[in-house]
Amino acid sequence: MAAGLGMGVVLTRSSRDATLLSMSQITILAYFVSLFVVFLGSAFGAFGASPGTPHLQVYAHRGVRSFAPENTMPGFRAALAIGTDFVDMDVVLTKEGEVLISHDPLLKPELVRKADGQFIEKNKYAVKNLTLKELQQFDVGRLNPESAYAKFFPDQLPVDGTRMPTLREVVRFVERETHGSVGFQIEMKTDPTHPESSADPVVFASAVYRVLKEEKIIGRTEVQAFDFRCLTALQKLDSHLKTAYLTSRDNEKGGGDDFYSQDPALATLWTGGALLAQSGGSIPQMVKVMGGFAWEPEDAELTLGSLKEAHSLGLKVVVWSWPEKLGTAFDAKMTAKMIDWGVDGIITDDPGRLISMLAARGASVPARWSLKGR
């Protein structure tokens, strides 16, 4: 019996079966092609959009600081589930040279508790003087509700019993869950005004580089720092490593760490001895001269002119927010301005909200990852 398919075409059972087989093969082929396209899209999304295609990269700051304990495994899990191009984290160096995930060379009472559940004393615990075993006795799964810091993150979910992970642990977790599809942004935390509690930049750089090399993630990693000595030390180890030079409003004229100061000691305190005047008074030019891959200014510091200058120099520009100065962990108006100006990336405590703003504008967004029962 014949079956009519329209357009005057009539097929016998055998010819119909052959057609269905052909259609099935096409469907299978289309499926694999679509997977390939998704793979390409993911690759370009995470590590640079294809030429001519605007793409703003999402950096999940300290995991998802607005909703999960910062710089912890619960935070990084949440970041992957929400979607991000880069997981962002801070690192410090322990007494035995282990690279630890933590924002502070001196542990802060705003988010660190002792085994008895009490928040620690201020300025008592320097990471460089403690072993990894000693540091993992602390609980970083809950903000101190009495602190001013906690007021910026009222929706952060406590996860009691959370420890500070090592950089290697975080890298292996992200690699396992995303199959190498998410980038790493790693900030080296040192303070040249307090060398007694900070790691030596050269020793620190060597320890960080060792992990990146052994874990084979150099090509997908950007290392950032306010202390430029850390970055120049890394560049001496590997000129191909992507370094990102962090600045803030404090580095502008009249700021507390003024790069423009007439006092060389102040002007070079965070630059490792480099004078801004030697780069024509231009921070983007200084970053370029020093060998940087990216300039990462505070969002309120950036101007459209400095953005255009940085781009003309071939620098990637990624911005970050300072909640204590903005008055909020996520400023939608500031974020919209950064998107409209065309920055290359935004470091955010709320990647979900940033992704929503990008989606509403028809921009590409990062993949979300379904974690394997963790």
Write up what this structure looks like.
The protein folds into 2 domains: 14-53; 54-105 and 165-360, TIM Barrel, CATH 3.20.20. The chain is 34% helix and 13% strand. It is built from 12 helices and 11 strands. It has helices at 13-47, 73-82, 132-135, 167-178, 201-214, 228-237, 264-267, 283-289, 304-312, 323-326, 332-341, 351-360; strands spanning 3-4, 10-11, 57-60, 86-93, 99-101, 183-188, 221-225, 242-247, 294-297, 316-320, 345-348. Strand 4 (86-93) and strand 5 form a beta hairpin. Helix 5 (201-214) crosses helix 6 and helix 8 packs parallel to helix 9. The N and C termini lie far apart (55 Å).
Briefly, what is this?
With 374 residues, the chain is of the alpha/beta class.
SSE blueprint and pairings:
Layout: E1 3-4, E2 10-11, H1 13-47, E3 57-60, H2 73-82, E4 86-93, E5 99-101, H3 132-135, H4 167-178, E6 183-188, H5 201-214, E7 221-225, H6 228-237, E8 242-247, H7 264-267, H8 283-289, E9 294-297, H9 304-312, E10 316-320, H10 323-326, H11 332-341, E11 345-348, H12 351-360
Parallel strand pairs: 3-4, 3-11, 4-6, 6-7, 7-8, 8-9, 9-10, 10-11
Antiparallel strand pairs: 1-2, 4-5
